[in-house]
Design brief:
By secondary structure, the protein is α/β, with parallel strands linked by helices. It contains 14 helices and 24 strands.
Length: 443
């Protein structure tokens, strides 16, 4: 391997490395790895690591946004930081003109630190401290209030600064799926939204700029997005009689791209980007046929990031316990399935074909992790052959993994970004150390 662009000799995490053979992409644009490439990466970064495919992320972002803009041009994307707040991803969103959609002060601080202007930040979420909420409003961020306690905070700010113009949004809670009652936003049926709107508009220096909804459903169907769009348009008709809203925000929760084997594990249909756009955008186009309609904001996370992160882990142990065959890898279920899904995520095994002497097992094999927990199984009943020194690569796991993963038993692995244009790998999060894990404790 050749080391290039080493900007500081005392900062190896700044390095970029070239792999001798350029990585190809398949017909769907996915990276085509090899055992040798993974072996070279192991020498540099260790025996487990994430690989971030930024080009795939950019492709997803453009395709998703264009699906909506092709019908309703005044559409913008707010990337859901909570889904995966790798700074490199968030910087890419900003460079492409997207909003930072954050749900905590921690995420808000990240957005500011990477250069996102406050006016390009959407502050959602159920918990906003008084100081944080005030600072975001005064900086010009879109702040969508979630409860009457936050209305009280705005009232206090408006009364304290009577000359200051204040603008907020309101998150709506209405029924689109009877299987679950959401805990977020103002209950429309109970009159909470009406109460919040009235209290805010009675303030001389406060305006409500728009309505927001983010309602998660198990099916994530196009029908549910059609219903929520219809409902939020009805609400804007009612509350914005004299002046149209500045924005209508329908939130996120869309399915992302999946491999066929992962799709087959779901009961229902998996819509694509264009189908989601067709469920939402024509309603806005019909309501606002000209070019001066309100801004439509969509807040995808999973939809644009689910297939842009892979997790590679080396096979280091094999055993057979009665009828169960087991392969141990330098990874954990917490690296790839921290939300507890029962699905087998897409997995490929890269074989060391030249080492015929290696120990092997023929499937079905359970691929298990390093923790001392029985549930730590990355993949159940892998059907192929697997051996010591092979590499497992789990795909379709870019959403929530690196943000949910605790330092449980073993510190977190590094994240490498792959640039297919430059054919370079760059370390964007170094491997954590024991010192990192325990640095906040008082010893």
């Amino acid at each position: 391997m050749q080391i290039i662009n080493n900007s500081r000799s005392d900062a190896p995490y700044k390095r970029k490395i070239k792999i001798h053979s350029k990585i190809e992409r398949d017909k769907d644009g996915k990276m085509q790895l090899s055992w040798q490439t993974l072996h070279n990466l192991e020498k540099e970064y260790g025996d487990s690591f994430f690989i971030l495919d930024l080009r795939q992320f950019e492709t997803n972002y453009k395709e998703f946004l264009q699906g909506f803009r092709s019908i309703y041009p005044n559409t913008n994307l707010g990337y859901s930081y909570k889904t995966n707040y790798i700074p490199k991803l968030c910087q890419t969103v900003h460079s492409m003109g997207g909003y930072a959609e954050v749900v905590s002060q921690m995420e808000y601080d990240l957005a500011v630190s990477i250069g996102v202007p406050p006016t390009r930040i959407i502050f959602n979420g159920p918990l906003k401290q008084q100081e944080d909420l005030e600072n975001a409003i005064l900086a010009g961020s879109i702040v969508n209030l979630d409860c009457l306690e936050e209305v009280e905070m705005v009232e206090a700010l408006a009364n304290r600064l009577p000359e200051q113009k204040i603008a907020v949004g309101l998150r709506c809670n209405f029924e689109i799926d009877t299987t679950r009652i959401s805990r977020f936003g103002f209950d429309v049926a109970a009159g909470e939204l009406d109460q919040a709107f009235q209290r805010l508009t009675e303030l001389n220096n406060c305006t409500v700029d728009g309505l927001h909804c983010h309602i998660s459903t198990s099916a994530r169907s196009t029908e549910s997005y059609s219903r929520r769009t219809q409902k939020i348009i009805e609400l804007t008709d009612y509350y914005f009689k004299e002046k149209q809203p500045r924005f209508i925000d329908i939130g996120g929760g869309f399915y992302g791209k999946m491999t066929d084997d992962l799709k087959s594990q779901f009961d229902g249909y998996i819509p694509n980007y264009q189908e989601y756009a067709q469920a939402v955008a024509p309603q806005l186009k019909s309501k606002y046929p000209g070019d001066s309609g309100p801004e439509l904001i969509i807040e995808p996370g999973v939809a644009v990031v689910s297939d842009v992160l892979n997790f590679a882990a080396k096979v280091v142990g094999l055993k057979t316990v009665r009828s169960r065959q087991i392969a141990l890898v330098v990874g954990s279920v917490h690296n790839v399935k921290p939300t507890g899904t029962d699905k087998n995520l897409s997995l490929r095994v890269y074989r060391d074909e030249e080492n015929s002497a290696q120990r092997k097992l023929a499937g079905p094999v359970d691929i298990v992790g390093y923790t001392c927990m029985e549930h730590d199984c990355l993949y159940k009943d892998y059907p192929g052959e697997i051996g010591i020194g092979d590499y497992t690569v789990v795909e379709n796991m870019g959403a929530y993994t690196v943000v949910f993963k605790p330092p449980f038993i073993r510190a977190n692995p590094p994240i490498i970004s792959y640039d297919s244009i430059q054919d370079e790998y760059q370390l964007i999060r170094r491997r954590e150390t024991s010192e990192d894990v325990f640095s906040t404790y008082i010893l």
